Amino acid sequence: MKNTIKCPTCGENIDVNEILYHQLESEFKQKNLLEKKRFEEEIAQKRVEYKNAIDELNKKEQNIKDKERNFELQVKEATQNALNQEKVKLHEELKKQILQEQNESMELLKKELKEKSNQVIELNTAKANIEKLKREKEEIEASILYAQNIQKAVLPSKEFRMEILPEHFVFFRPRNIVSGDFFWIKKIDEYIVVSVADCTGHGVPGAFMSMLGFMFLNEIVTVENIHNAGIILDKVREKVKESLHQSGREGETKDGMDMSFYIINSKNYEINYSGAFNPLYIIRENTEIDDIDKLIKDGMKVFKSKKEDVGASLIEIKADRQPIAIYSYEKAFTNRTFQLKKGDRLYSFSDGYPDQFGGEEGKKFNAKRFKEMLLEIRNNDMKTQKKLITDNFLNWMGTTEQVDDVILMGLKI
């Protein structure tokens, strides 16, 4: 049932609930408007407060920025001041270091200049000494060359040799300008006397010994007219010992010579040989050898080539194992007699040729190669043999230094 009342104006019935609703609605709107107004006023107030807060914040921010800017300026100014002070300090230290280095450089330069000055003085002194040594060397070489001329004059000339020995050669190659090796030839009546010797040392000392050897051989063989090779070597040894004052005392010189010495009777071809270390080689065709066993029994060595086409043998007449000088186990030199035949080739020599180093392996030429070479070239004439022997020696030696004086004499009966 509706609650109605009559309107006093129009007389119509009005629903009480609707009136109440409108009344409430009006009150609500009124209240709403009041709330809205109050809220808007609060919002406006908050906006003012917020703006004031923002302004305050902006002021603070600006203040902070100003402080930061001032701080940066202060830091920059302080940094610049510190850098300037550091630069000044570094500059002073660098200047001090440069001055120190300059002083050290000056001291070093002074020291180097002093050393250079001393070097120049030493160099000038050395140059003067070199010039002096050069002059002395030239004088010595001139003296040695003169000694070489004397030695050549003393050695039997080619003309003299060819007169006595028409078929022969001499390969003579001193290690230095003058030699300690020498050869000596004489003809006394029907006897041809030949000596090939190797004196102690080479060069000037060896040459002095060779002159003694020449003198003693001339004195003993020519004057005393002895035909026994062993006795002649005994007498030469006595002369050497006497001249060099050799008595066997400790520390005295033991200089002397090795020698191959023989006397050929040109009428019957008999040879008397005696040797001090140096043997005598005789090459004979195999067809001319009567009895090899007898030769060996008589104390000789017989060497045959390994090459089958070499139809000859090398007979070695051995030397005594003692020098012509003072010696601990001294004994009389042995005189050996041997019958030569027409066509025999005789070779006497020093140890310079077989002892020469060379070849691909830098070894000694040695006695075996030496014997093989002599057997291979035996059929050539003496002039050709000398060329072959010379070429072989130079090829073997190559760039190796010559180690000793060299002498090799060959002759054909």
Kindly describe this structure.
A hairpin with a 4-residue loop joins β6 and β7 (270-276). The termini are far apart. Helix content is 53%, strand content 20%. The model has no long low-confidence stretch (mean pLDDT 87). The strands form 4 sheets. Strands 3-15-12-8-10-9 form a 6-stranded antiparallel sheet. A 5-stranded antiparallel sheet has the order 4-5-6-7-11. It is an alpha+beta fold and 413 residues long. The chain folds into 2 domains: 51-154; 155-412, PPM-type phosphatase domain (Phosphatase 2c, domain 1). The protein contains 7 helices and 15 strands. α1 (16-154) packs parallel to α3 (203-224).
Short summary:
This protein is α+β, with helices and mostly antiparallel strands and 413 residues long. The protein is 53% helix and 20% strand. A six-stranded antiparallel beta sheet has the order 3-15-12-8-10-9. It has a five-stranded antiparallel beta sheet with strand order 4-5-6-7-11.
Beta fraction: 15-25%
Number of beta-strand segments:
15
Q: Main β-sheet: number of strands, strand sense, barrel status?
A: 6 strands, antiparallel
Low confidence ranges: none
| First-residue to last-residue Cα separation | 189 Å
Order of helices and strands: EEHHEEEHHEEEHEEEEEEHHE
CATH superfamily of the largest domain: PPM-type phosphatase domain
Q: How confident is the prediction overall: mean pLDDT? A: 87
What is the CATH topology descriptor of the largest domain?
A: Phosphatase 2c, domain 1
**Discrete helix count:** 7
The coarse overall form would be rod-shaped
> How large is the radius of gyration?
63 Å
Give the fraction of residues assigned to helices.
40-55%
Task: Quickly count the domains.
Answer: 2
Query: What is the top-level CATH class of the largest domain?
Result: Alpha Beta
Which architecture name of the largest domain does CATH use? Answer: 4-Layer Sandwich
| Largest beta sheet: strand ordering | 3-15-12-8-10-9
**Would you tell me the structural class of the helices and strands?**
alpha+beta
